[in-house]
Amino acid sequence: MTTLNVNPTRMELKRLKTRLTTARRGHKLLKDKRDELMKRFLDIVRENLELRREVEEALVSANRGFAVASAVMSPEMFEQSLMCPTKSVELDVSYQNIMSVDVPKFSFSESDGHTIYPYGYAMTSGELDDAVDRLSDIMPRLLRLAEMEKSAQLLAQEIEKTRRRVNALEYVMIPQLSETIRMITMKLDENERGNLTRLMKVKDMMIKEQLQKK
Protein backbone atom coordinates (compact mmCIF):
# COMPACT_ATOMS: atom_id res chain seq x y z
CA MET A 1 0.00 0.00 0.00
CA THR A 2 1.39 3.42 -0.98
CA THR A 3 1.82 6.11 1.64
CA LEU A 4 1.09 9.82 1.52
CA ASN A 5 3.94 12.18 0.69
CA VAL A 6 4.25 14.02 4.04
CA ASN A 7 6.99 15.07 6.42
CA PRO A 8 7.49 12.55 9.25
CA THR A 9 6.90 14.98 12.14
CA ARG A 10 4.87 14.69 15.31
CA MET A 11 2.57 17.49 14.18
CA GLU A 12 1.93 15.69 10.89
CA LEU A 13 1.33 12.46 12.80
CA LYS A 14 -1.30 14.13 14.97
CA ARG A 15 -3.00 15.64 11.91
CA LEU A 16 -3.08 12.28 10.11
CA LYS A 17 -4.54 10.53 13.16
CA THR A 18 -7.33 13.12 13.24
CA ARG A 19 -7.98 12.54 9.53
CA LEU A 20 -8.03 8.78 10.07
CA THR A 21 -10.58 9.10 12.89
CA THR A 22 -12.76 11.32 10.70
CA ALA A 23 -12.42 8.93 7.73
CA ARG A 24 -13.47 5.94 9.84
CA ARG A 25 -16.45 7.82 11.22
CA GLY A 26 -17.46 8.93 7.72
CA HIS A 27 -17.02 5.37 6.45
CA LYS A 28 -19.42 4.04 9.08
CA LEU A 29 -22.00 6.74 8.37
CA LEU A 30 -21.82 6.14 4.62
CA LYS A 31 -22.17 2.37 5.11
CA ASP A 32 -25.25 2.94 7.27
CA LYS A 33 -26.65 5.28 4.63
CA ARG A 34 -25.95 2.74 1.87
CA ASP A 35 -27.67 -0.04 3.82
CA GLU A 36 -30.74 2.11 4.51
CA LEU A 37 -30.90 3.21 0.87
CA MET A 38 -30.76 -0.44 -0.21
CA LYS A 39 -33.61 -1.29 2.17
CA ARG A 40 -35.77 1.56 0.82
CA PHE A 41 -34.82 0.66 -2.75
CA LEU A 42 -35.85 -2.99 -2.34
CA ASP A 43 -39.16 -1.95 -0.75
CA ILE A 44 -39.88 0.32 -3.71
CA VAL A 45 -38.85 -2.36 -6.23
CA ARG A 46 -41.20 -4.91 -4.65
CA GLU A 47 -44.11 -2.45 -4.71
CA ASN A 48 -43.17 -1.41 -8.24
CA LEU A 49 -43.28 -5.00 -9.54
CA GLU A 50 -46.69 -5.67 -8.01
CA LEU A 51 -48.10 -2.35 -9.22
CA ARG A 52 -46.70 -2.84 -12.72
CA ARG A 53 -48.39 -6.23 -12.95
CA GLU A 54 -51.74 -4.72 -11.91
CA VAL A 55 -51.42 -1.77 -14.33
CA GLU A 56 -50.42 -3.99 -17.26
CA GLU A 57 -53.36 -6.30 -16.61
CA ALA A 58 -55.74 -3.32 -16.39
CA LEU A 59 -54.34 -1.81 -19.61
CA VAL A 60 -54.69 -5.13 -21.44
CA SER A 61 -58.29 -5.38 -20.26
CA ALA A 62 -59.07 -1.79 -21.34
CA ASN A 63 -57.41 -2.29 -24.73
CA ARG A 64 -59.38 -5.48 -25.21
CA GLY A 65 -62.57 -3.53 -24.56
CA PHE A 66 -61.59 -0.86 -27.08
CA ALA A 67 -60.78 -3.57 -29.64
CA VAL A 68 -64.22 -5.19 -29.18
CA ALA A 69 -65.94 -1.78 -29.34
CA SER A 70 -64.12 -0.85 -32.55
CA ALA A 71 -65.18 -4.19 -34.04
CA VAL A 72 -68.91 -3.68 -33.36
CA MET A 73 -68.98 0.05 -34.18
CA SER A 74 -68.23 1.79 -37.45
CA PRO A 75 -64.72 3.34 -37.61
CA GLU A 76 -66.19 6.82 -38.08
CA MET A 77 -68.49 6.55 -35.07
CA PHE A 78 -65.69 5.05 -32.94
CA GLU A 79 -63.34 7.96 -33.70
CA GLN A 80 -66.03 10.60 -33.22
CA SER A 81 -67.04 9.12 -29.87
CA LEU A 82 -63.56 9.67 -28.41
CA MET A 83 -62.68 12.88 -30.22
CA CYS A 84 -63.85 15.44 -27.60
CA PRO A 85 -63.15 14.52 -23.95
CA THR A 86 -65.46 15.94 -21.30
CA LYS A 87 -62.82 16.23 -18.58
CA SER A 88 -59.33 17.65 -18.28
CA VAL A 89 -56.64 16.50 -15.86
CA GLU A 90 -54.14 18.70 -14.00
CA LEU A 91 -50.98 17.05 -12.70
CA ASP A 92 -49.17 18.33 -9.59
CA VAL A 93 -45.60 17.34 -8.72
CA SER A 94 -44.10 17.59 -5.23
CA TYR A 95 -40.98 16.01 -3.73
CA GLN A 96 -40.24 13.80 -0.75
CA ASN A 97 -36.76 13.50 0.78
CA ILE A 98 -35.53 9.94 1.28
CA MET A 99 -32.00 9.81 2.73
CA SER A 100 -31.00 13.09 1.00
CA VAL A 101 -32.63 12.01 -2.28
CA ASP A 102 -35.60 14.06 -3.53
CA VAL A 103 -38.07 11.64 -5.07
CA PRO A 104 -41.21 12.87 -6.89
CA LYS A 105 -44.77 12.60 -5.64
CA PHE A 106 -47.50 12.89 -8.29
CA SER A 107 -51.09 13.89 -7.72
CA PHE A 108 -53.81 14.88 -10.16
CA SER A 109 -57.14 16.61 -10.14
CA GLU A 110 -59.94 16.36 -12.68
CA SER A 111 -62.12 19.17 -13.94
CA ASP A 112 -65.76 19.04 -12.92
CA GLY A 113 -67.33 17.10 -15.75
CA HIS A 114 -70.73 15.47 -15.46
CA THR A 115 -69.48 12.19 -16.87
CA ILE A 116 -66.32 10.49 -18.03
CA TYR A 117 -68.00 9.38 -21.27
CA PRO A 118 -67.40 11.95 -24.05
CA TYR A 119 -70.30 10.69 -26.15
CA GLY A 120 -73.97 9.86 -26.12
CA TYR A 121 -75.23 6.35 -25.61
CA ALA A 122 -77.47 6.00 -28.65
CA MET A 123 -74.83 5.08 -31.24
CA THR A 124 -72.13 3.50 -29.03
CA SER A 125 -71.67 0.05 -27.55
CA GLY A 126 -71.53 -1.09 -23.94
CA GLU A 127 -68.02 -2.44 -24.53
CA LEU A 128 -66.82 1.12 -25.17
CA ASP A 129 -68.37 2.28 -21.88
CA ASP A 130 -66.57 -0.49 -19.99
CA ALA A 131 -63.23 0.28 -21.69
CA VAL A 132 -63.45 4.01 -20.92
CA ASP A 133 -64.41 3.23 -17.33
CA ARG A 134 -61.45 0.84 -16.88
CA LEU A 135 -59.04 3.32 -18.42
CA SER A 136 -60.26 6.04 -16.04
CA ASP A 137 -59.71 3.76 -13.04
CA ILE A 138 -56.10 3.07 -14.10
CA MET A 139 -54.96 6.70 -13.78
CA PRO A 140 -54.12 6.78 -10.01
CA ARG A 141 -52.19 3.49 -10.22
CA LEU A 142 -50.41 4.67 -13.37
CA LEU A 143 -49.18 7.80 -11.58
CA ARG A 144 -48.14 5.75 -8.56
CA LEU A 145 -46.18 3.44 -10.88
CA ALA A 146 -44.43 6.47 -12.41
CA GLU A 147 -43.51 7.61 -8.88
CA MET A 148 -42.10 4.21 -8.01
CA GLU A 149 -40.03 3.87 -11.17
CA LYS A 150 -38.53 7.37 -10.90
CA SER A 151 -37.84 6.88 -7.18
CA ALA A 152 -36.13 3.55 -7.86
CA GLN A 153 -33.97 5.18 -10.55
CA LEU A 154 -32.92 8.07 -8.29
CA LEU A 155 -32.22 5.79 -5.33
CA ALA A 156 -30.17 3.43 -7.53
CA GLN A 157 -28.01 6.38 -8.63
CA GLU A 158 -27.50 7.50 -5.02
CA ILE A 159 -26.68 3.93 -3.92
CA GLU A 160 -24.01 3.67 -6.61
CA LYS A 161 -22.55 7.05 -5.64
CA THR A 162 -22.51 6.10 -1.94
CA ARG A 163 -20.99 2.69 -2.73
CA ARG A 164 -18.11 4.34 -4.61
CA ARG A 165 -17.45 6.66 -1.65
CA VAL A 166 -17.52 3.75 0.81
CA ASN A 167 -15.07 1.78 -1.34
CA ALA A 168 -12.76 4.79 -1.75
CA LEU A 169 -12.61 5.23 2.02
CA GLU A 170 -12.36 1.51 2.80
CA TYR A 171 -9.80 0.47 0.20
CA VAL A 172 -7.84 3.65 -0.52
CA MET A 173 -7.97 6.49 2.00
CA ILE A 174 -8.12 4.57 5.31
CA PRO A 175 -5.34 2.08 4.33
CA GLN A 176 -3.17 4.96 3.03
CA LEU A 177 -3.63 6.96 6.21
CA SER A 178 -2.99 3.90 8.39
CA GLU A 179 0.16 2.99 6.46
CA THR A 180 1.43 6.59 6.54
CA ILE A 181 0.83 6.80 10.29
CA ARG A 182 2.69 3.52 10.78
CA MET A 183 5.57 4.78 8.63
CA ILE A 184 5.83 8.10 10.52
CA THR A 185 5.61 6.32 13.88
CA MET A 186 8.42 3.98 12.89
CA LYS A 187 10.51 6.91 11.63
CA LEU A 188 9.95 8.91 14.83
CA ASP A 189 10.78 5.87 16.97
CA GLU A 190 13.93 5.31 14.95
CA ASN A 191 14.94 8.95 15.38
CA GLU A 192 14.25 8.73 19.09
CA ARG A 193 16.40 5.62 19.43
CA GLY A 194 19.16 7.35 17.46
CA ASN A 195 18.98 10.42 19.70
CA LEU A 196 19.02 8.22 22.80
CA THR A 197 22.08 6.35 21.50
CA ARG A 198 23.89 9.65 20.82
CA LEU A 199 23.03 10.95 24.28
CA MET A 200 24.36 7.77 25.87
CA LYS A 201 27.59 8.07 23.86
CA VAL A 202 27.98 11.71 24.89
CA LYS A 203 27.35 10.77 28.50
CA ASP A 204 29.93 7.98 28.33
CA MET A 205 32.46 10.42 26.79
CA MET A 206 31.83 12.97 29.54
CA ILE A 207 32.21 10.33 32.27
CA LYS A 208 35.40 9.03 30.66
CA GLU A 209 36.78 12.60 30.42
CA GLN A 210 36.02 13.26 34.07
CA LEU A 211 37.74 10.05 35.09
CA GLN A 212 40.80 10.96 33.07
CA LYS A 213 41.02 14.38 34.80
CA LYS A 214 41.01 12.71 38.19
What would you note in describing this structure?
The chain is mostly helical and 214 residues long. The protein has a single domain (10-213), classed as Helix Hairpins (Orthogonal Bundle), CATH 1.10.287. The chain has three helices and two strands. It has a two-stranded antiparallel sheet with strand order 1-2. Strand 1 and strand 2 form a beta hairpin. Helix 1 runs antiparallel to helix 3. The chain is rod-shaped.
Pick out its properties.
214 residues, mainly alpha, Helix Hairpins, 2 strands
CATH topology: Helix Hairpins
| % residues in beta strands | 5-15%
Order of helices and strands: HHEEH
Please report the distance between the alpha carbons of the first and last residues. 57 Å
What's the CATH architecture name?
Answer: Orthogonal Bundle
Ordered list of secondary-structure elements with their pairings:
Blueprint: H1 10-72, H2 75-81, E1 89-98, E2 101-110, H3 126-213
Antiparallel strand pairs: 1-2
Helix pairs in contact: 1-3
